[in-house]
Amino acid sequence: MEATTQKIELSVTVNGTRYERAIEPRMLLSDFLRHEIELTGTHVGCEHGVCGACSVLMDGEPVRSCLMFAVQTQGHEITTVEGLGAVDALSPVQQAFHEAHGLQCGFCTPGILTTVTAFLETNPNPSEEEVREAISGNLCRCTGYQHIVDAVLLAAKKKQAS
Amino acid sequence: MKPAPFAYYAPTTLDEALSLLSEHGYDAKVLAGGQSLVPMMNFRIAQPAVLVDINNIPDLAYINAEEGGVRVGALTRHHQSETSPVMARHAPLIYSTMPKIAYPQVRTRGTFGGSLSHADPSAELPTLTTTLDAKFRLVSQCGERWVSAREFFLGLYTTALEPDEILIEGFVPELPPRSGWSLQEVNRRKHDFALAGVAAVLTLDESGICQDARLVFLSVGDHPMYAERASNLLKGQALTPEAIRAATELATTEEIDPGDDIHATADFRRHLAKTLCQRAIEQAHQRAQGKQ
Ligand SMILES: Cc1cc2nc3c(=O)[nH]c(=O)nc-3n(C[C@H](O)[C@H](O)[C@H](O)COP(=O)(O)OP(=O)(O)OC[C@H]3O[C@@H](n4cnc5c(N)ncnc54)[C@H](O)[C@@H]3O)c2cc1C
Ligand code: FES
Ligand code: FES
């Protein structure tokens, strides 16, 4: 069998909406999200797994969308930053980032928000050290991380209060 | 698009996957977690014509305690190993090292079998499985064979796997009583691939004399570097500071082969290996005495 650009039918749920597209197998999940279904909230930085900007949730677990082929998500559920909350109804994590100044340029933010959302599900009351571990796979060039850590700790408090 | 075109198969049985590999030979690659293969495809360093995605084959992800050790399925994600009480109990060296491997989002996808098959000389699992004397089950359409870790890792990204074989599982023996273990490494940033590292396991006899020892280095050679002579030097000895120094000296002058790259010179890696080796033996010794 030769390498092929022949398209494959993909059916995947993203942020609760079912999408059906015919795509080449080599299309990365990150490119699928941004170019095919135009959810440009997911950012791409390095495209080889290092920076974390492209992190999304697959069945609730954080993954690098630049290190998966979109065809691999057949039948799975993807959550991107767009699925966490809306501008007028921020999720607790988004609200905490807003209040604690957890971002500057915002490039790294979608990957961090998705990762942190999953993290707080499994660890609702983390220590600062655990927060730093949880975001160790997300590079931020702006903030120096201090306010991001503050925001995650604040988000944990908010979630517990609610 | 970044990767070159390929034909994609997502078999749901092992037989189907093996038949695809046998049909396509060197043109095909297994896709497990994709955390090493996909970056290489994004760079087009790897351009396989056919990808055989094994993620839809059921029952390849497990960590089971067995007589004498633990059996780990090829598709076991790093995250599973990191959080498994069975791994913690029966292979604490692997369990305690998992959080050092890459980042949370990489560990949700990266697999036990993928890391071994990829055989990056800087990766932890090849070195840990060599240190623990693990063996791997390789299966093809023609049958199956068990290969010991020491015979599996042949060189830079090179293993005993034939193109039509899949690594299905590993068996990691449990350490006997009065054993201790340690992994020491130095990274430029936490979670990066190590500049140099070493794993040590030791078993003492009732009087505290070293009965068995294995020292295996990472990132200082083309594959996990088993320092056999230095390991043998420790056997039959009381682990005095002098004995530890002598084994460390032998291992790091004669039994490793560090290289230069943009991250570190060979000399610096050797220097690190020496300090780390001493610490690893000391920590393993402490643990073997029940002190940690
Ligand atoms: C940013 C980043 C940092 C990382 N840091 C570390 C680190 O510090 N330490 C570390 O050890 N690793 C690190 N890794 C690598 C990670 O652990 C990978 O998950 C692992 O090396 C490969 O496993 P995989 O399942 O993703 O394999 P894949 O990428 O799917 O496959 C790798 C290779 O193995 C072959 N293969 C896979 N499974 C099998 C099988 N069952 N049988 C036969 N062949 C098979 C594939 O064909 C391919 O050639 C890092 C990765 C990234 C992206
Ligand atoms: S774009 Fe995926 S990790 Fe950098
Ligand atoms: S806010 Fe700019 S990269 Fe993080």
Notable features of this structure?
heterodimer, A: 162 residues, alpha+beta, DNA polymerase, domain 1, 2 domains, B: alpha+beta, Uridine Diphospho-n-acetylenolpyruvylglucosamine Reductase, domain 2, Uridine Diphospho-n-acetylenolpyruvylglucosamine Reductase, domain 3, Enolase-like, domain 1, 5-stranded antiparallel sheet
Task: Summarize the entry for a quick read.
The complex is a heterodimer of chains A (162) and B (292). Chain A is an alpha+beta fold and 162 residues long.
Strand order of the largest sheet of chain A: 2-1-5-3-4
Biggest sheet character of chain B:
5 strands, antiparallel
- State the helicity of chain A in percent bands: 25-40%
Number of H/I helices of chain A: 5
Order of neighbouring strands in the sheet with most strands of chain B: 4-5-10-6-7
Sketch the topology of chain B as an H/E string, one letter per element. Answer: EHEHEEEHHHHHHEEHEEEEEEEHHH
